[in-house]
Amino acid sequence: MSAERSLSDGHNEAGHGALRRRIFEIVFLSNTAAGKLFDIILLIAIAASVAVVMLESVTSIKVGRERLFWSAEWFFTILFTVEYLLRIWCVRSSRRYMTSFYGVVDLLAIVPTYLSLFVTGAGYLLVIRVLRLLRLFRILKLSRYVGAADLLVEALVRSRRKIIVFLYSILTIVTICGALMYIIEGPENGFSSIPRGVYWAIVTLTTVGYGDITPGTVLGQVLSSIVMVLGYGIIAVPTGIYAAELRGVMISHRDENKCRECGRSGHDDDAKFCKYCGGDLRETEIYKGEE
User: Fold this and answer.
1) Sign of CA dihedral 123, 124, 128, 129
2) Tally of CB atoms within 10 A around 241
3) CA 165, CA 143: separation in Å to the nearest integer?
4) Are 48 and 118 in contact (CB under 8 A)?
5) Per-residue CA distances from 100 to 104, 147, 280 (Å)
6) 35 vs 124, more confident
7) Most buried one in 116, 164, 188, 237, CB count within 10 A?
8) Contact call for residues 67 and 60 (beta carbons, < 8 A)
């Protein structure tokens, strides 16, 4: 009797494992017919859910259809919740998935609806579901675009110190200009405090110019003119910093695994020989070390 029970338990465990593998292939892999179909249906559901949230914010469309929008919102939320739980159940390391970029986005795609039960208006945060459409790159095998995005991020990381120094300089300038404008203009012209003056300095320096606060004295107008002219020169600084770093990143990636025989690049990271002339790419690392 115990032998039959052990055999039955073994069959159940085997069937359970096979089911998990099958669901994993459908949910996570896009190189199978079932996986592709699942991804396409998922993308359509994501796009439809985002459209529902956007249309719900239009008063003329929402009036008289509150029940319909409420039902659609909960339908998509329950659908995505089941999908999220399936991903956690079938993946080998649930913690790794839950802390990954897509895992966090999948969770944020369902939280606002449940949060709306306690916080009014939280349901509109569901537009974050549009981030789930990033799976389109994986489904359509657009890895080259992901690589291009990596270049942009790397350039941004490399230029972070220069940008931080630039932002600190801007913060110093707007603080000084805001304090001066508070002293020059005063509350009678709308500059009721130094923070209010700093707000004006930021708006003026960035050439936005809302016009809700304007200087009324000659000295204040002179300072305003200086800040506006200064703004045109400052705006180009972060763009130049980032462009220079991006150019450096592109050059460095272009020269990686460059063949010393034919001078051509574009090889895979793990390539050992040139795909054009057959030259030994491993020599490149040796020469780099000697240099």
Assistant:
1) positive
2) 19
3) 34
4) no
5) 6, 18, 37
6) 35
7) 116
8) no
φ, ψ of residue 207 in degrees (nearest 5) = 60, 25
Alpha-carbon torsion 153, 154, 156, 157, what sign?
positive
Q: Say what the pTM is.
A: 0.55
| Six-digit token string for 146 | 């992901």
281 versus 226: which is more confidently predicted? 226
**Is 106 within 8 Å of 84 (Cβ atoms)?**
yes
Report yes or no: 244 and 230 within 8 Å, Cβ to Cβ: no
The string of pLDDT tens digits covering residues 123-148 is 667 777 777 776 666 555 555 555 66
Q: Which residues contact 77 (CB under 8 A, 6 or more apart)?
A: 110, 113, 114, 126
For the chain, list the domains and their CATH numbers.
2-141 (1.20.120), 155-255 (1.10.287.70)
Residue 113: HSE in the Cβ half-sphere, 13 Å Cα cutoff: 24
**pLDDT band at residue 26, thresholds of 50, 70 and 90?**
confident
CB 259 within 8 A of CB 267: yes
Query: What would the pLDDT profile of 80-97 be if each residue is shown by its tens digit?
Result: 999 999 999 998 888 888
- CA proximity to 43, closest of 165, 121, 124, 130: 130
Helix (H, G, I), strand (E, B) or coil at 273: strand
Give me the mean pLDDT over the 38-57 stretch: 86
Measured between alpha carbons, how far is 137 from 198 in angstroms, rounded to an integer? Answer: 43
